[in-house]
Oxidoreductase (Bradyrhizobium iriomotense), 468 residues
Amino acid sequence: MTTLLERPEDMLRDLRNQLGPQAVLIGNEVPARNCNDWSASLPQTPLAVIRPVDAAGVAAAIATCRKAGLPFVPQGGLTGLCRGAAPEPGWVAISLERMTGIEEIDRASATMTVKAGTPLETIQKAADEAGFFFPLDLGSRGSCAIGGNLSTNAGGNRVIRYGMTRELVLGLEVVLPDGTVITNLNKLMKNNAGYDLKHLFIGSEGTLGIITRVVLRLFPKPRSTMAALCALKDYAAVVALLDAARSGLGPLLSAFEVMWPDYWEMITARAGVKPPVAAGHGLYVLVEAQGTDESIDAPRFQAWLEGLMERGLLADAAVAQSLAQTQKFWAVRDICAEFGQVLGPHISYDIGLAVARMDEFVTRCKAALADGIKGCESVYYGHIGDGNLHLVSWVTGLPIERQPKDAMDAIIYGLVREMSGSVSAEHGIGTLKKQWLGHARSEAEIALMRTLKAALDPDHLLNPGKVI
């Protein structure tokens, strides 16, 4: 017979007495922010939100959840788009929002040790102030937490040069679903002592463990930044420009962002953006390069562009003359973060494709959406240099709950599968893409994922039902 003390609410109150009055919020105390991520889905209020300040607190939270038989979900900045950190009714959210701060910057090893709830922008600024550069960069940099960046293996703007988040991590501390704390705050670039366990948790979307601390790689601070917005006649010219950038700029190339004409029309006609190059071209590309000596790098970049103009590869181009102009160039690409205000309700997609087939996908997908869904519009853009295409689609006048998402998903992900792409390039799977995972992973791969999940979380209490 269950005693009063064994009720989940009483167990949670006992945990609050252990961790402190601000550490456990129950029932009506639960803030709205902990009820959903940034996905356009219905918020769900968890039974409680536990806010520990260290790994021991996370372990205590897990012990309470396990004793009460409560599913629990880790939460960071809650900027995800696939419900990977979203709770369900009756769950407990373990939020790392109080687990913030830079613990150490080791200049000799060029590393930074941080707590998992630390916002990405805080890390970027701390690296900059110490004379280093941390290259991970996302539009949600001020809100997203580094633990969430690791859990989704975030991509962003500079993957073409620095790689995904996975490439920027040397060590981590993680709490397993049974409460065991694994601490391996490794700073060594070379460490082949057995399995590299950190890769088990990076990209697992909080289904195999809760990341609590991280050792990040730092890089030399760029001493020069060059940027150009280029207009090109067609996608063949875009591929040629990418090849020229890789060979002509080499390791200086830090970003290669492509925008299709529908995107250009959207930002100029609806968002009021005044871009530095005129409309009417086939495609638009933002090229960024970062170097170590402005007196050498800037003339080299200028000469490289002039050579492309002489070859007739570029229809038009504008070169940033200052850091402020570079930021304005990036604003043309980052305006997509404001599509909610510009477009109204819409559905966002994040897919991976072979670079050579991007334009084929755009042409076919745009036509299929327009033909298959009455009134459906779509625009296309992305980090094409690393094979990542973004698109948004919508039917004007429909609220978000009436947008034909299922029909859009079927068309878009069906085409992704046909073209051997990925249904998620950088946002993860969560629950919103779970049914489409088989479009990008084989049955054998998914079975192995389930085996790993069962081995680490046999009771299926940590973020159940996500990814697989």
Observations:
- Residues 4-95 form a domain with the Uridine Diphospho-n-acetylenolpyruvylglucosamine Reductase; domain 2 fold (CATH 3.30.43.10).
- Residues 294-311 form the longest helix (18 residues).
- The mean pLDDT is 95.
- The two ends are 35 Å apart (CA to CA).
